[in-house]
Amino acid sequence: MTNNDRIRAIAVAVSLALASAAATAGNRPDASAAPMTKSAKGTAIVGGDAIVGGDIDQLIASGVVAVGPIEMVDVSSRVIRVLGQNFATGATPMQMAMLQQRIASGSPVPAVVNGKVDRTGVAKARTMSLYSAQYVPGSSSVFVIGKVTLERSSVGSLNIGGLKVDYSALLSSGSVQIREGQTVAVIGVQSAPNMPLVASALRQL
């Protein structure tokens, strides 16, 4: 079994666990959302493959809220972190441990989180897919939508939850007006998990 096959197997196992957990708990999704849709701290579905491409507008139009390597797997709380944003799952500890082991091996495990942004500007996860395309830290694009929690316009830096974004390279192309509390979409590169995202494009939503 190849590494990609193992990733797919873990993804399918977690997806089935989430579906079972939601059915058992009787989770009620928002009226406008797909089954088991919750906020960034709620349930997300994990499973399948996804193909990521295109610019920031295409990603927004496709309902993508985050694209990047999984940074952390907390087995006890069943939480997965992507680009500083936490997503809880309904997976079993054993399934989470399998994914944690894969992350611990040192090879990036990229994920695509689809969802929507609620009225408060918080990205809500609908699905989370592991994909098998090659991911190269510092070269492959990453993407995130979220609320600005800290802004330092003097140095071209902001935070989206636990993610620091460096948008200083965009300052030369014109005025960038960002305020804390705004919801933004950012695409760029990240040299390593938990490191700043260096933005190549930023959009206020």
Explain what the structure shows:
The chain is an alpha+beta fold. It folds into two domains: 3-130, no CATH class; 142-204, OB fold (Dihydrolipoamide Acetyltransferase, E2P), CATH 2.40.50. 20% of the residues lie in helices and 35% in strands. The chain contains three helices and eleven strands; from the N terminus they run αβαβββαβββββββ. It has helices spanning 3-25, 56-61, 93-104, and strands spanning 45-46, 64-74, 79-82, 85-88, 110-117, 123-130, 142-152, 157-160, 163-166, 183-190, 197-204. The relative contact order is 0.18.
- The portion of residues assigned to helices is 10-25%
Number of domains: 2
Calculate the mean pLDDT score and round it: 75
The number of helical elements comes to 3
Structural class: alpha+beta
Amino-to-carboxy terminus distance: 43 Å
Tell me about the biggest sheet?
5 strands, mixed, barrel
Strand order of the largest sheet: 7-8-9-11-10
The number of distinct β-strands equals: 11
